[in-house]
Amino acid sequence: MKRLHVHVAVDDLQRSVGFYSALFAAPPAVLKPDYAKWMLDDPRVNFAISTRGREPGLDHLGIQAENADELKEIYARLHTAGGEIVEQGQTTCCYAKSEKSWIDDPAGVAWETFLTTGESTDYGEGTDEREVCIAREASCCAPQAAPSLTER
Fold first, then answer.
1. What is the SS3 assignment for 13?
2. Sheet holding 57-65, edge to edge
3. How far apart are the C-alpha atoms of 136 and 84, rounded to whole Å?
4. Nearest-angstrom CA–CA distance, 64 and 55
5. pLDDT interval class at 86 (50, 70, 90)
6. Which residues pair with 6 in a beta bridge?
7. Which of 38, 34, 56 is nearest to 47 (CA)?
8. Of 117, 133, 132, 110, residue with least CA distance to 6
9. Which residue has the higher pLDDT, 81 or 139?
10. 8 Å CB contact between 55 and 2
């Protein structure tokens, strides 16, 4: 069974851990100095917070597969949904090893689809995660300014 993933960027991890632990009536399943994650069954969600976002608030949403067959099914849905898919492949992120792809919804909300394959001792700064985010942002084209009369 798939699991919804929500990642929120926070300013104060300790305060946020207290808030979400009370809200979910459970401590985080993973707690690091810059990251916390709850693997809840009711509702079935992988809820993560970190101090690694560009600004506080919703960082991205996602769908976590439990096995390779579910991941293939989710990837097929991405292609049906349309839009530019960034296939990241095997990576290390959020203290976990995963295979993942990204897509933006029509409102510009980033969606991550992934299968976790193991744990990692580091957040994943040495992976392609930053490059994927930069590539996703670069793919959003801003209108080009018209050349000035002197440039024509």
1. helix
2. 30-32, 35-41, 44-50, 3-9, 57-65, 110-119, 96-104, 85-93
3. 9
4. 24
5. confident
6. 47, 61
7. 38
8. 110
9. 81
10. no
